[in-house]
Amino acid sequence: MDFMKIITKQLIEIIEWTDDSRDTLSYRWPDEDKEIKNGAQLIVRESQQVQFVSEGQFADLFNPGRYLLTTQNIPILSTLRGWKYGFNSPFKCDVYYINTRLFTGNKWGTSNPIMMRDKDFGVIRLRAFGTYDFRITNAALFLKEVAGTDQNFRIDEFADTMRSRIVSIFSEALAKAQVPALDVAQRYSELGDALLQLINPAVSEKYGLEITSFLLENVSVPPEVEQAIDKRSSMGAIGNLNDYVKYQMGQAMANGGEGAAAATIPATMAMGFGMAQEMMKGMQGGGAAGTPAAAVADPFSPAAAQAAQTPAAPAAAGLQVLTPAQAAQVLGVAEADVLAEIQAGNLKARQIGSQWRIAQAALDEFLRG
Q: How much is the pTM?
């Protein structure tokens, strides 16, 4: 009788596993060197699958439910074991529980910047990060390529592999898409959906996984590119610079004081240049040659327009050429903003040596938008 109790204790009658870790991907059921008897119960709960492995070969796969392990329920194992007439004696077999629930909120990110060519800024470096959700869809492939014979395979053991795989696919997809850096922030959702279609086939074929959701949360650029984007955004927010200068002038005059005088300087200069331009147009519009010199003495007389066409005209024409600093004063912005617009090609200018010169006509065209 004692001998029969010893034998009974060496046989497995119930196989089940409850997961309380929330991060276990696969679990090899500990048999403690015991054998599974004929008619033993196998319990597979929801969000679980059980994969039998016999002597290194994948056998039967069980979905959620309660099973009696008989020849009818384990046909593949029966074939591998050579049980032509059904099994009666106990046997040893590795039993792997696979967690098929959805694992959410897994983080991914670029450890090093991604080099890409941008049409606005040339070659730039991008960093990106986000989250993804996944589940196991092919238990045998997952055990073969990922978990192996690990008794308790957790998600943190696989996180680095998944992260590097996702970043690699993300880099290739972003380079092929040729999305401008200025537009990336506006297309996070669109990029995430597009990348999901590229990532899923590669991950499914390689690891037996399905990526159900892929989110792109942030794409960052180097500080110098951020500054250029901020400047362009500021120019867009200002809108019509001519109206903006007039508004500043009106506000300063309403406030009064020394600040008003200082604030009206750019607007006053702009008005002065405008008057000079109108005078030049009037000079070029007509006037008879040979006007008496005495008539020129009156700067407001019709003869003054004729005198403007004499060799003294280049002095007046000199008012139509501005330095970036003068243009900045006219516009009421920083000189760096004017240079940024020149570099961007929005404001036409000519570089002489190391200096930039801006024609008044080009500035007027810029103001008109």
A: 0.57
